[in-house]
Amino acid sequence: VVGQMPLSSFFGGA
Amino acid sequence: MFEARLLQGGLLKKVLDSIKDIITEGNFDCSPNGLSLQAMDSSHVSLIDILLESEGFEHYRCDRNIPMGLNITNLVKMIKCAGSEDIVTIKCEDKPDNVTFLFESKDNDKISDFEMKTMTIDDEHLLVPDQTYTAVVKMPSAEFQRLCRDMAAIGDTVNISVTKEGVRFSTTGDMGTANITVRPNPSGDQKEEERTEVQITEPVSAGFALRYLNSFTKATPLSPTVTLGMVPNLPIVVEYKIADMGHVRYYLAPKIED
User: B79-116 pLDDT, tens per residue?
Assistant: First the structure.
């Protein structure tokens, strides 16, 4: 399966 | 209150063109430093980050931070009513129910004002770290646009590999494969904006969805060059600098294979 992780899993919340 | 006067109203049209395919609404943050926007697409894999610095405006007044939630589709409709040479003034109160756009023709013979309703947008704000990129590629924006378009004709995902020899873009689809390598050429006779420059600390390679990259290239009219920043296993950043004003940046999560 090829997919993408949401950006929140790379960058923290403000 | 917030009031900002921009001599090149056409710039606003270009900025909106660069985001309208990706987001339908967004919070424009008015602050003493400038006008900024951070918003994710509906699937939360790409992020738009815009900064228009206060110094880039002919007049700029902002007493306190004001979030201005706007429907982008409606905003595009309104800004379309401005001539590309018009001077645009954006005005709102501290807790705005609406925003006023004032368009003045260059010769000052036509003045229009439009009032648009604001909306409350509950969005997730991400903290993008100031990071050192393992690979930075600066290339002509038109070249990158062409390349993404060509790649998308063949496949859905592009693999971007950066080495000190250059940048290799590869894709695979039902009909076959495509590889395009762009080499750095700093010693040529080209003007600075025609050069491709590569700076790396180590080779980096990752796959990205072409659908998003193609949407990002809608920012091409904003800048003659584009900068790609990559770190292994982290989102790519695609940056278009706006001269004397700020930037439009896009972040896109890499493809993962299980």
Answer: 999 998 999 999 999 988 999 999 999 898 999 999 99
- For B187-214, the pLDDT digits (tens) are 667 788 889 999 999 999 999 999 999 9
Tell me which residue in B40, B129, B209 faces A7 most closely, judged by beta carbons.
B40
**In chain B, positions 13-72, which contact chain A (CB-CB < 8 Å)?**
40, 43-47
The span from the CA of B115 to the CA of B8, in Å, is 20
Q: Identify whether the C-beta of residue B231 lies closer than 8 Å to the C-beta of residue B134.
A: yes
* Angstroms from B250 CA to nearest CA on chain A: 12
**What is the ipTM metric for this complex?**
0.88
Write out chain A residues lying below 8 Å of B211, CB-based. Answer: none
Q: pLDDT by residue (tens digit) across B36-84?
A: 999 999 999 999 999 999 999 999 999 999 999 999 999 999 999 999 8
At B88, which helix (H) or strand (E)? strand B87-92
Asked if B44 and A1 come within 8 Å (Cβ–Cβ), the reply is no
* Pairwise CB contact (< 8 Å): B40 & A10: no
Token pair, residue B200, equals 């790396």
The C-alpha atoms of residue A6 and residue B117 are separated, in whole angstroms, by: 31
